[in-house]
Amino acid sequence: MYIVAIAWLYVALMMAISEHTVVAGVLTFLGYGVGPVALILYILGTPARKRRRKAREAAEAAASAPPPSESR
């Protein structure tokens, strides 16, 4: 997934370099490169964030639960 993002940033950088002014180049790179890549990575990272949150909550619940008493 990251290789595609890196490749797209490279393409956007090449587009930005070919602009006539520096301002147009920066806006091209931000508009066509950084913005869309950040949005896509955020959306595609949602399931992993959800799994990490559930695992953290389960670990906290297990840590706060009282230890089982021994019965004889």
The Rg value, from CA coordinates, equals 23 Å
User: Strand portion, in percent?
Assistant: under 5%
- Shape estimate: rod-shaped
* Terminal residue distance: 55 Å
Helix content: over 70%
Average pLDDT metric: 90
Number of E-state strands: 0
Number of DSSP helical runs = 3
Index terms:
transmembrane; mainly alpha; membrane; 3 helices; Transmembrane protein; transmembrane helix
Describe the structure.
- By secondary structure, the protein is mostly helical.
- It has one domain.
- Helix content is about 80%, strand content about 0%.
- α1 (about 1-15) packs antiparallel against α2 (about 20-45).
- The longest helix is centred in the middle third of the chain and has 23 residues, at about 20-45.
- The radius of gyration is 23 Å and the shape is rod-shaped.
- The protein starts with a helix and ends in an 8-residue tail after the last helix.
- The relative contact order is 0.10.
- The model has no long low-confidence stretch (mean pLDDT about 90).
- Keywords: Membrane, Transmembrane, Transmembrane helix.
- This is Transmembrane protein.
Record the SSE blueprint.
Layout: H1 2-17, H2 22-44, H3 46-64
Helix pairs in contact: 1-2
Transmembrane segments: 28-45
Organism: Cupriavidus plantarum
Protein name: Transmembrane protein
Summed up:
With 72 residues, the chain is an all-alpha fold.
